[in-house]
Amino acid sequence: MQGRQIKQCGLFSLTLLATFLHCSCLPHSTGGKPFPETAEEIASYTKVAKSIIDLAVYGNAQNRSYERLADFTDTIGNRVSGSKNLDLAIKYMFSALRKDGLENVHLEPVKIPHWVRGEESAMMLQPRNHTMAILGLGSSVATPQGGRPMGNSMAYPWPNPNDAGPIVRCPMGLPITAVWATLIRSITPFSINSPHTGWQDYQEGVQKIPTACITVEDAMMMARMAKRGQRIVVRLTMNAQTFPDADSFNTVAEIIGSEHPEQVVLLSGHLDSWDVGQGAMDDGGGALISWEALSLLKDLGLRPRRTLRTVLWSAEEQGGVGAQQYFQLHKVNISNFNLVMESDLGTFSPLGLQFTGSAQARAVMAEVMKLLKPINTTTLEEHGEGIDIEMWMDAGVPGASLHVADSRYFWFHHTNGDTMSVQSPIEMNLCSALWAVVAYVVADLEEMLPR
Amino acid sequence: MQGRQIKQCGLFSLTLLATFLHCSCLPHSTGGKPFPETAEEIASYTKVAKSIIDLAVYGNAQNRSYERLADFTDTIGNRVSGSKNLDLAIKYMFSALRKDGLENVHLEPVKIPHWVRGEESAMMLQPRNHTMAILGLGSSVATPQGGRPMGNSMAYPWPNPNDAGPIVRCPMGLPITAVWATLIRSITPFSINSPHTGWQDYQEGVQKIPTACITVEDAMMMARMAKRGQRIVVRLTMNAQTFPDADSFNTVAEIIGSEHPEQVVLLSGHLDSWDVGQGAMDDGGGALISWEALSLLKDLGLRPRRTLRTVLWSAEEQGGVGAQQYFQLHKVNISNFNLVMESDLGTFSPLGLQFTGSAQARAVMAEVMKLLKPINTTTLEEHGEGIDIEMWMDAGVPGASLHVADSRYFWFHHTNGDTMSVQSPIEMNLCSALWAVVAYVVADLEEMLPR
Predict the structure, then answer these.
(1) Of A116, A218, B70, B222, which one is least surrounded by beta carbons within 10 A?
(2) What pLDDT score was predicted for residue B156?
(3) What residue intervals traverse the membrane (chains A, B) (predicted)?
């Protein structure tokens, strides 16, 4: 994921409020059909849901999504927007989806940012020599040739860095012309000298200065030094470069619907990652279960009434770039989008589904989630989340995101620690099962989800 | 700490057995004096123990050991054997102990290893390019000029690396002449791409080859690649150098005993660290609470019958080098060593004391630990631990080590993550209180601990 946005907190509250307002008037209808009939219809999927779960968790497909993810990330490594690795990843996945026998496998062209980190380093020179682990932020400009020493005469403490959430804004009122660069404490509750990267944007009209994240440990040490009245000088060297936008693709595969092929349940994760670690958690896992869900249904010969479409986004980390272009291209058919799903918060032990939609749609989804009782993931939470699907949700399409036990997510997010070692085959089996059951049943119901 | 030694597992079992054998015949005497009288004598320290605890945990000394440790490690940084930083650390501490008003502050010369890491890197070339995070092991030789590519045709899997414990031995029967270097999976249950270092020794008569630790993540990935039948090639470059032994010092400070100044309770931690992170946990914390204990007693005007001697060892990480020389110099007075204490397993939330000694001595220590009821750390465990005091314990001197909630110890041990960020002032207050109460009471009892 790109990094939670502060404005989403507001959205969350509004969604919650809207739901409370509906609590006292539980829906008796889900569009054209009386609700009890829909509930009965959904309950009739109990056996097929069980067969999907059995295949994913105990059957021949056991550990397949994990093994596929391991092969993918071990072979390609990380794959940042604009990189040769991302091209390789898209080719790998295009070929793998076709080989898997999925339908309508194709690539949809998009233009994506092309920023290259280059060599970077930060050396503390005062009060003592100390090599700092850093990661420049995406879109950052380089430092002037040879690096530039920064003193804390320019330092401006950010109030309550722990409370700021994963978006950092430059404090207001700071005379930006006096600042040569910004060093930001990595936004994580835990670190083993592990700096985080991420995307940043320059406000229009201000001078562009280099920006990098330092470790929690170094930030805490510098805070102690500053408190002691010590002068801190750091030599920062960054050779980042921004190139013209690059050509890339969103990667698509389908199981075409038997009755309403034009109507779509969209499953997704993003194929790009940051340029550190393996991008296994963010978002290899989400991409792979979105593939795996289709594989499971294909293996069972299940073709729903509507089309199941897996889309593996390009350049999510730069602000959902690939997904935005997909939306612009396909929004003309918005009435055919039944449900948009994204997994981008990790594929750890699944807890349930986060959902954004009308109270009527929520009531349907709550019935669907009951089908997941065999793996104890029946919870339907508020607020479907994901930068790649939020424009659909904003436009009124029901949206769902996978909710997992993510307490360690930000330990690894955008670091060199985002590797296959944080993934578990058992957890991925469960995520795949949940993803496949929800997608299949919603795509196969007689009626589309009410808006 | 240097790394737990496998042979200590055996020692532990024997100690445990010896204790069980004594369980059915609880001591009625602690040397010359009937045991009930000793217990009563110890109970009379309840009030003084409380005053020590109050000062450390709630009083003027609150957070002092933490603040001192932060100033020390932020100022000096890490301080590996033979380095200029270790010299600076010893000077810093000598000056600080004198300034604190402790007695007989002096340095005792020792000779210590001088190994310098130099630049090092590992680049995977096949099956794909990947920069690996590594840390060479202490005493390792360098690679030939320009680095050397290693293929996994030479790789030899170590069975159950998780079970091996922190000492790794080269598997028997491996034709060492065919091996150019060894890459070892870092021995930790958790990693964020964080390699560990440590000391290694070459067996006599074998060719010396370079040795480095790789991350858990890379080791797991290489295992997956090998399982897939992929050829792995890594270019390893290490420029480590070993220089002649360097001059250094054990650092000593005392509160001289009022009745038996020649009799000693020794408190210790080691001042050296590895050449990564800040060496705050290993073993800045242990060194600092061994200083703090004396400060607390001095502040309260408490001078025990016997001498309290804090020794901050040099070159523990290379095999207890400074402590071995101390033992050789002072063992002539072994009968005057009442109790030897070492804190080298972290200064996290204290649980109690680990103790090695006769059943009679254990009975006394169990009474002493009851004085720590106000901070709920009354547990007396088996097996006093610590490479710097083990020769005293082997020779029959009672030994004690601080037992803390150390479940995360090996996450940070010998990594760049061993910084002040893993320390807590509250936990260090409690450790200091425990350390001071035990040392003071044992040093002040009418009789020495029975052997």
Answers:
(1) A116
(2) 44
(3) none
Tell me if B217 and A417 make a contact (CB, 8 A cut-off). yes
Closest C-alpha among B247, B268, B245, B249 to residue B95: B249
Joined tokens for residue A106 = 């194709």
Model confidence at A37: pLDDT above 60: yes
Nearest to A1 by CA among A184, A168, A167: A167
> Mean pLDDT across the stretch A417-439?
98
* Angle, in degrees to the nearest 10, between helices B216-227 and A64-76: 100
Segment B386-421, tens digit of pLDDT: 999 999 999 999 999 999 999 999 999 999 999 999
Q: How much is the mean pLDDT over chain B? A: 89
- In A35-128, the DSSP E strands lie at 103-116, 120-126
Q: Residues with Cβ < 8 Å from B62, sequence gap 6 or more? A: B56, B425, B429
- Is the per-residue pLDDT at B160 higher than 50? no
Q: Over the range A110-137, which residues count as b (16 or more CB within 10 Å of their CB) and which as e? A: bebbbbebeebbbebeeeeebebbbbbb
Q: Which two tokens stand for residue A399?
A: 């949206």
Question: What's chain B's length in residues?
Answer: 451
A366 touching B, CB under 8 A?
A: no
Nearest to A193 among B74, B75, B417 (CB): B417
Share of chain A above pLDDT 70, in %: 86
Would you call A127 an interface residue with chain B, using a CB distance cutoff of 8 Å? yes
Measure CA A299 to chain center: 27
User: What does pLDDT average to over chain A?
Assistant: 89
pLDDT score for B85: 98
Give the CA dihedral A182, A186, A187, A193, nearest 10 degrees.
-170
Domains of chain A, each with CATH number or no CATH? 6-115+244-444 (3.40.630.10), 118-239 (3.50.30.30)
How near does any CA of chain B get to the CA of A35, in Å?
49
Is the sign of the CA dihedral B129, B131, B136, B141 positive or negative? positive
Question: Which residue blocks in B181-337 are alpha helix, DSSP H?
Answer: 216-227, 285-299, 321-330
List of residues 6+ apart from A39 with CB closer than 8 A: A367
Rg of chain B (C-alpha set): 23
Residue A385 and residue A2 in contact, taking contact as beta carbons nearer than 8 Å: no
Q: Report the pLDDT value the prediction gives residue A395, as an integer from 0 to 100.
A: 98
Catalytic residue of the set B316, B367, B385, B390:
B316
Which residue bears the tokens 């170094």? A218
Write the CB contacts of B60 (distance below 8 Å, at least 6 apart in sequence). B299
SS3 state at B404: strand
Q: How far apart are the first and last CA of chain B?
A: 26
Q: Residue A235 forms beta bridges with which residues?
A: A123, A149
First-to-final CA distance of chain A? 26
Closest of A96, A24, A402 to residue A251, by C-alpha: A96
Mean pLDDT in residue range B133-160: 71
Question: Contacts of residue B221 in chain A, CB cutoff 8 Å?
Answer: 74, 278, 419-420
* Among the ranges given (A103-112, A162-171, A211-220, B280-289), the one the predictor scored with the smallest mean pLDDT: A162-171
Is the distance from CB of B168 to CB of B3 less than 8 angstroms?
Answer: no
pLDDT of amino acid A180: 83
pLDDT of residue A2: 73
ipTM of this predicted structure: 0.89
